[in-house]
Design brief:
Elements lengths: L8 E6 L5 E8 L2 E10 L2 E9 L2 E9 L5 E8 L2 E10 L2 E9 L2 E9 L6 E8 L2 E9 L5 E8 L2 E8 L5 E8 L2 E9 L5 E8 L2 E9 L5 E8 L2 E10 L2 E9 L2 E10 L2 E8 L2 E10 L2 E9 L2 E10 L2 E9 L2 E9 L6 E8 L2 E9 L5 E8 L2 E9 L5 E8 L2 E2 L3
Antiparallel strand pairs: 1-2, 2-3, 3-4, 4-5, 5-6, 6-7, 7-8, 8-9, 9-10, 10-11, 11-12, 12-13, 13-14, 14-15, 15-16, 16-17, 17-18, 18-19, 19-20, 20-21, 21-22, 22-23, 23-24, 24-25, 25-26, 26-27, 27-28, 28-29, 29-30, 30-31, 31-32, 32-33
Length: about 400
């Protein structure tokens, strides 16, 4: 008795409504060999079969009978090398394992020509080394991925200059890393969190000159830091919300200030120097002398009293130039003697005691000679005695 061989045969399989659902080779009533499957008279697969399942090389079609995949199958699943398409555009070329991108592959922009990503995949996600490209073909990112998230690498500008080098977290800059200007010069070097400057870091201008060195929080200067201009320190001290706030030292041109700041302005107690000479010690508000303070001239005290918006306002003592001797002690308004006050000779004897208006004796007042003897008491009008 001879051997019995099962032969393949061409067949057409239909469903209950007499629509063709398969045509092609069969073996033992199972799809085997080349064949085409249909749904509602539309081609969904054309290629090789084995044991009633897609096995080997084949093509999948979408609902418009346009190719959506060409490649290899094992047991009805994309497995091996293949090409995925959408609307006649190539989306992906590379390796598959059990219907998922695994191994080396390439993703494209929707023009089917420009590469978007090439590198390694695992379970449909970018995993391992890979590169992302601009549409012009230049590299945008060269790095390492984990579960579709970039974890470290280099990012580039479209002109091929490096833009960033370091760690990534949730696709954002992270850790101690470096960011660069488009011209290739260093922009920032230091700590980053959620893509924002955080922790200690150094900021540079486009000429690679340091403009800030210190602490950051959420992309704003926060904590202690130093500002530079043309390689010279113009401020060192504390910041809050990108503004000078707290204790600090400010140097601009011929002015040096050491003291308290609030929202980028001199506020609170501080010391002011002009042309390296002491100018003022006392209270500031909104960059102005405001409150009690001492005014100096040639490093000698000139005035000790109250200020408002840089003007003498309230009570205070005015001294003779370059001397510790009192010239005037009394009330002030708009930087002038106004109200009650006493003026002194240099020998500290009283010259005038009484009322003032805009630096002039006015209303009742008393005049004395330099030996302390009263020579006039009565009314004054704008520095003139009212004598009948």
């Amino acid at each position: 008795m001879g051997n019995c061989h099962t032969k393949k045969e061409y067949n057409i399989e239909k469903c209950c409504n007499n629509k063709v659902i398969y045509e092609g080779a069969m073996k033992n009533n199972k799809k085997d060999g080349l064949g085409i499957s249909y749904i509602n008279n539309k081609k969904v697969y054309e290629g090789q079969w084995s044991n009633n399942m897609k096995n080997g090389c084949g093509t999948l079609y979408d609902s418009n009978e346009q190719i959506c995949y060409i490649g290899n199958f094992i047991n009805d699943k994309k497995h091996g090398s293949g090409t995925e398409k959408q609307n006649q555009h190539i989306l992906y070329e590379g390796e598959y394992i059990e219907d998922k991108k695994n191994g080396y592959g390439t993703l494209y922009y929707n023009d089917s020509v420009s590469v978007y990503y090439e590198g390694n995949f695992s379970d449909d996600k970018k995993n391992g080394n890979g590169k992302i490209y601009f549409k012009n073909g230049n590299i945008k990112i060269n790095g390492t991925w984990q579960n579709d998230n970039l974890i470290n690498g280099s990012e580039f500008w479209e002109n091929n200059n490096i833009k960033y080098q370091g760690l990534f977290k949730n696709d954002k800059y992270f850790g101690n890393s470096s960011i660069y200007y488009k011209n290739g010069n260093l922009y920032y070097c230091g700590g980053l969190l959620e893509g924002l400057k955080s922790g200690y870091g150094i900021l540079y201008d486009t000429n690679n000159t340091v403009i800030y060195e210190g602490e950051w929080l959420n992309n704003e200067k926060s904590g202690y830091g130093t500002i530079y201009n043309n390689n010279k320190i113009i401020y060192k001290g504390t910041f809050k919300n990108d503004l000078k706030s707290g204790k600090g030292e400010l140097r601009i041109n011929n002015i040096y200030y050491k003291g308290s700041f609030l929202e980028d302005l001199k506020n609170g107690y501080g010391t002011l120097f002009i042309n390296s000479k002491l100018n003022y010690i006392g209270i500031f508000a909104n960059n102005n002398k405001n409150g009690n303070g001492k005014l100096f001239k040639n490093n000698k005290i000139l005035f000790n009293g109250d200020f408002y918006n840089n003007s003498k306002e309230g009570t205070g003592i005015l001294y003779y130039d370059n001397s510790d001797k009192i010239l005037y002690n009394g009330s002030w308004s708009n930087d002038l003697r106004n109200g009650f006050g006493i003026m002194y000779y240099k020998n500290q004897k009283i010259l005038y005691k009484g009322n003032w208006i805009n630096n002039m004796a006015h209303a009742y007042g008393e005049e004395y000679n330099n030996e302390g003897n009263l020579i006039y008491s009565g009314e004054w009008k704008y520095n003139s005695k009212c004598i009948n």
